[in-house]
Specification:
The protein is an alpha+beta fold. The chain has one domain. The chain has three helices and seven strands, in the order H-E-E-E-E-E-H-E-E-H. The chain has a five-stranded antiparallel β-sheet with strand order 5-4-3-2-6. It is globular.
Length: 106
Amino acid sequence: MRLMTKSIEKMAQKQFSSGAGMEQKVVAKFFDPTGSYTWYLMNSDPENPDYCWGIVKGHAVEMGSFSLSDLQNYRGQFGLGIERDKFFTPMIAEDVWNRLHNGEYI
């Protein structure tokens, strides 16, 4: 599965100049189907598409950068890679952040 579609890439790169603001939309959700980590993409660098910024839910909920190539190359249990939630609807980052901190599933 392709993690980054042209549409997602366009939305993420468009928001890059906004910095790390919580008013941005989370445009995609990536997850490890055999693990506990989930990445919520907010933006990516148009000049370096490997650089992504967003919310990461693992042992804690954090905000920071992550590498698209690391997600694409990762193989976990049973050789499964990171997946994109095809049914995820973009939503405001602050809402994602608050809901995750409240223990909600998104």
